Amino acid sequence: MARTHTEQHHLDASLTWAGFRQLVPISAFVTAFGAAFGLAATQAGLGDVATIAMSALVFAGASQFAALDLWGAQIPLATVALTVFAINARHLLMGATLYPWLRHLPAAKRYGIMVVATDANWAMSMQVFNRGRPGFGVLFGGGLALWLFWVIGTAIGAYFGNAISDPRRFGFDMIMGCFLLSMVVGGEKNPRMLMIWVAAAFSSLLAYWYLPENSHVVVGALTGGAIGILLKEPGDDH
Amino acid sequence: MTIEAAGMGALLVVAVMAVITLATRWGGVYLMAFVPLGPRTRRFIQAMSGSVLVALLAPMAVDGDMGARLALLTTGVAMLVFKRPLLAIAAGILVAAMARLV
Predict the structure, then answer these.
(1) Does B24 touch chain A (CB under 8 A)?
(2) I want to staple B4 with a disulfide (CB 3.0 to 4.6 A). Which of A3, A108, A152, B9 is the partner?
(3) What pLDDT, in 10s, does the model give residues A86-144?
(4) What per-residue confidence (pLDDT) applies to A120?
């Protein structure tokens, strides 16, 4: 069925349900990642309530894993806040790319949809929009599916995490590091990104050795960002 | 500024994380109504969100024990070869467990 461009922002219950079902096939993976987070979080010393609340309210895997690295008896709030912002700043770009369609919606709906926006459903909805079809069903309904399975997975992981007495022996202390690394390697790979990563790694290590505790995260993020401004992307001038 | 993780402290940190993340989800849409994000801003944000992960990982790789290093190496290589995150993570954890067995 043909729809005009102005109708692409349409969203109703049936589109939401269709979007939900479209994301269910990848939900097994989301549950597994959620379980990995729940497991890692209990080891980092988060209680069950804080662990599940984090998945339900933050709903952004990489930043949640990163927060675990900074967790302790004393939590550096400012560093956690900056780290979470730096990792999740990519949501700003998602909102910006969706703006041509979001701007047709009333404010409550516009910002309501964005509450569950995350990498997978954003990418799928952009594909749908670029084919000229209504994409908010995938973004919102799919986002609800991802959220639900992320929280369920977290609860499962937290449950088993409490039952394991020596997680290090099973390598479970490496869940967080391996997760973050898989995000880095799974992302964009080209000489430009490699230079950005090298700059981030070196500046992070220097800060880790010579600057106050936990400053390495922010130093590495800002250095990488600055190199990103200097190195232009091919075809960036449109 | 540090917060005690005990008691309500952990939940306070979770709340701060939630508010910041929501601000990133809403901020891009909100800002676009006034001024579109330029290419320099886009490049900075894109580079920064990858760099912060690298910045977390670098000390982990340098300071970690042999199990940790082999785990990261395995996950990195498995990710390049198979491009399956879950598989790559599982392989890394398995290698860490085996390295600590010996």
Answers:
(1) yes
(2) B9
(3) 999 989 989 988 998 999 999 999 999 999 999 889 988 988 898 888 999 999 999 99
(4) 85
Of A186, A177, A67, A57, the residue nearest B19 (C-alpha) = A57
Residue A77's closest CA among B52, B101, B60, B10?
B10
Q: Do A181 and B75 touch (CB under 8 A)?
A: yes
pTM value is 0.84
Q: What is the DSSP letter of A76?
A: E
Dist CA A181 CA A174 (whole Å): 10
Q: Do residues A177 and B72 lie in contact, with contact meaning Cβ atoms separated by under 8 Å?
A: yes
Beta-carbon contacts of residue A130 (< 8 Å; ≥ 6 apart): none
Query: Cα separation of B57 and B54, whole Å?
Result: 5
Determine the residue among A49, A74, A91, A231 to mutate to test chain B binding: the one whose Cβ has the most chain B Cβ atoms within 10 Å.
A91
**Residue B63 tokens, joined:** 């300071």
Beta-bridge mates of residue A66: none
Task: Report the DSSP beta bridge partners of residue B3.
Answer: A75
Residue of chain B whose alpha carbon sits nearest to that of A73: B5
Encode pLDDT of A119-134 as tens digits.
Answer: 889 988 988 898 888 9
Domain ranges of chain A: 12-187, 189-231
pLDDT of A234 > 90? The answer is no
